[in-house]
Amino acid sequence: MLLLVCCGILTACSAADEAMFDPEASYLNDKVVSSVPKSQSITVVGSMVDETGNYLPAYPYPMYKKAHKIVHLSPVPTNLTVRCEAESVNSGVHGGLVRSKRYATTTVNYPFQAGKTYQIFCNLQIHNNYKVVVREVPDGTKFQTVRSADFKTNQPNDSNRVRFEITGKSSRSFWRLAGNEYMAVRNWDGKLGETAELAAPLNSVTVECQTSRDRITVPLTGNFQAGKTYRLACRKNAQGLVEAYVAESK
Q1: How far apart are the C-alpha atoms of 112 and 92, rounded to whole Å?
Q2: In the predicted model, is pLDDT for residue 3 greater than 50?
Q3: Which residues contact 217 (CB under 8 A, 6 or more apart)?
Q4: DSSP label at residue 159
Q5: I need a labelling partner for 232 at 20 to 30 A (CA). Which of 84, 114, 171, 250 fits?
Q6: Are 210 and 198 in contact (CB under 8 A)?
Q7: Smallest Cα–Cα separation from 165: which of 202, 207, 218, 212?
Q8: What whole-number distance in Å separates Cα of residue 43 and Cα of residue 96?
């Protein structure tokens, strides 16, 4: 069962730092305790990646107190506060690139049930909004709560490497100019860049297109083959929507 909620007001608090030092916590009546009865509580696990496998952590953030990777909540709530993390890259005042993390906080309404475990995902949408997904998962599910573990199996080698490049003129900023769209492509480790290397077999790559107003995450599908290089571009289709496409392959 899925629940989709769109929202996201950017804030500057470091949820990643909070979750690193206090990854798992139990709350009883909004107060931290050592544990809560499973039959009278829910467990919420934040995913380190979005639904397409890109690095975009979701942190349960009960009562706006502190971000965690895993929380156990009792009594069963009717909603949950979630923090989403996004990578931001801009030109520095004195040139060069400045990478930072920015966060959005949102409240998700969901019919949680006692004794069950849920995983939350964040997906970056246009206008820097986030779509938060809540998914019920079976007991005993093993979760990856460390960034490196999420991508370790996706690192390409010489036999399965697929390379992607962004077309267009180089710019001083992180993005590359392609027509009227700024672009980036996500690498195997989840980082945005002008190039990416992924492991075949591969049928999807994530491209980010940015117009003068919007940054849009676009999953580009295709039969991408090992040993090949694909040059990607963004454009607007007949319906006026931004899409990514393969401009050239070699």
Answers
A1: 44
A2: no
A3: 52, 54, 123, 124, 125, 206, 207, 208
A4: T
A5: 84
A6: no
A7: 207
A8: 43
Give residue for tokens 């992924």: 198
Per-position b or e across 80-99, b if 16+ CB within 10 A of its CB: bbbbbbbbeeeeeeeeeeee
Tokens 């979750």 sit on residue: 19
3-state secondary structure of 110: coil
The amino acid occupying position 36 is V
Domain locations along the chain: 2-151, 155-249
* Rounded Cα gap, residues 55 and 223, in angstroms: 23
Which is more confidently placed, 121 or 6? 121
Tokens of 70: 């895993």
Where do we find the tokens 């009960």? 62
DSSP letter at 49 equals B
